[in-house]
Model the fold of this input.
Amino acid sequence: MHAISLGTTLKQLEQLNRKPFQLAGFDFDYSGTVLSWSHGELEGVLDPVILRLDPSQDQSQQTDYRSVLGDGSSSGHPALHRLNPAVYQLIWLFP
Done:
């Protein structure tokens, strides 16, 4: 499935999607959840799958991390590019 697995990075997902996408900010229950593929190549392809991304633990005290907490953000946000979080959870939804 487009070579997406645990550890796939934000930059790799952008490359596969061929454009930035929307994801939830960090440090809450749905932290780093992809909210929308923004009409990119992965739109519709990954509908039954929820992806969640997270930066490494040592980055949680950095200014970049604090700037993308809470509400959603574009994967193209400069702080997210510097953090380059990776997929830590894949959830398949079954009807």
